[in-house]
Design goal:
A hairpin with a 2-residue loop joins strand 2 and strand 3. The radius of gyration is 21 Å and the shape is globular. Helix 8 runs antiparallel to helix 9 and helix 8 packs antiparallel against helix 10. The strands form three sheets. It has a four-stranded mixed sheet with strand order 1-4-5-8. By secondary structure, it is an alpha+beta fold. It binds acetoacetyl-coenzyme A. The site of acetoacetyl-coenzyme A has 27 residues, from helix 4, strand 3, helix 6 and helix 10. Acetoacetyl-coenzyme A binds next to helix 4, strand 3, helix 6 and helix 10. This is Acyl-CoA dehydrogenase. Keywords: FAD, Flavoprotein, Oxidoreductase. Pfam families: Acyl-CoA_dh_1, Acyl-CoA_dh_M, Acyl-CoA_dh_N.
Amino acid sequence: MIFELSDEHKMMRDMVREFAEAELAPSAAERDERECFDRALMFDRLAELGLAGVVFPEEYGGAGADYLSYAIVVEELSRVCASTGVTLSAHVSLGANPIYKFGTEEQKQKFLRPLAEGSKLGAFGLTETGAGSDAGGTRTTAVRDGDAWVLNGSKIFITNGGDAETYVVFARTDKSAQKHHGISAFIVEKGTPGFSFGKKESKMGIRSSPTMELIFDNCRIPLDNLLGEEGKGFKVAMQTLDGGRIGIASQALGIAQGAFDAAINYARERKQFDQPIANFQGVQFMLADMATQIEAARLVVYQAAYKASAGVPFSKESAMAKLLASETAMAVTTKAVQVFGGYGYTREYPVERMMRDAKITEIYEGTSEVQRLVIGTAVTRG
Ligand code: CAA
C-alpha cells in the first residue's frame, strides 16, 4: 500500500503540472475545437522534458523512472489536456513498451531508442472493424515471402495514427489457427511501401489526439521486424494492454482531478442567494462524492502502477484501475458540469470538454465490460 509519494515522485508531479498549466492549458480548448494535434507542443516538448521514454532504462534512451512516475506524468498532463495524456500513453505503453518487453537487442536499439528519446512517435495497431473487444478476431494477414513478411488488411481507431513513425501491428500468420492462436506482432515503419492511412475519425472527445485507420496493401517488411515469437502475438497484445490500461487509468484520474479542481474553484466564486454556492449542502455533497471517488481511484491506480514496477502480476490490478478510474472520470465530470450549471454546458469553461474526454476512457484499451471480464476471470479462477 502506498500512502505517501516519494520526493522524486513529487518533483516529477510538480514539474509536469507546471508544464501542463503553463504550456498546454492555454491552447487546450482551441486544439479541441479545431481537432488539432500540435506535435511540437504535445509530443516534442514532452521529449525535451525527458518524458517520451519515462519508464525505459537509460541504456535505451529512457529516463529510467518507475511506473508510478509514468502514472503521475499521464495524470498531470490529462488534468489539463486529456489529448496530450493519451498521446504519451499510447506512445509509451502501446508503441514502445512491447518493443522493450518482447524485442531483440537489435530491435531495441533500432526502434525503441528513437521512441524513448522522442525523435519518433509510436502507435499500436490491434483493432479492426470486426475485432474490437474480440482482439483474437484479427483478420489482417502476414505471409512470409522470401526475405519479407507481406501484410494485408486494415486497422481502425489507431491513436497517434498518421503522425506516428513506428507501429506495432498484429496480423494472422497462420490462417488455419482459430481465435487468438496464429497471430503475430510486427514492427512497421511509416513510409514503408504498401502502408498508408485511411479515414481520420472526428470524435466526441480527445479531439486533438489523432485517430486514424491504417491500411496494408501488399506491405513488405523485413523478416527481422517480427516482434516476439511467431504465432504468440496475442499474448504480446494482452501483456501490452495490461500496461496500457494503467496509462488510461491515469488519464482518467487526471481528467477527474481537473474537473474537480475547476468545480471547487467555481463553487467558491459563484454566488447565488447572496453567497458562494460552495456554502450550500447540495453542492457540498456533490463535491464530497467527487473528492471521495477520486481518492479511491488514485489509490487503486497507483497500486497497479507500483505492482507493474515491482515485477509481480498486475493484470487484474490494471483492469481494476482502469475500470474504477474511468467510471470515476465519467461520474466526476458529469457532476462538475452540474456544479457549473448552465455555464458548465457551454464551451466557455473546460468541464464540458472534460466530460466529453472522460467518455473514451470507458471504451478504449478495453471497454468497462472487458475490464469486468478480466477481473471476473481473475477473481473466480481461485
Ligand atoms: N497476459 C498474458 N496472457 C493472457 C492475458 C494477459 N493479460 N490475457 C489472456 N491471456 C492468454 C490466456 O492465458 C490464453 O492463453 P492460452 O491460449 O495459453 O490458454 C489466451 O491469452 C486467450 O485468452 P482468453 O481465452 O481469455 O482470450 P479471449 O479471446 O477470450 O479474449 C479478452 C479475452 C479479455 C476479451 C481480450 O480479447 C481483450 O482484452 N479484449 C479487449 C481488447 C482491447 O483492449 N482492445 C483495445 C485496443 S488498443 C486501443 O484501444 C487503441 C488505442 O490506441 C488507445
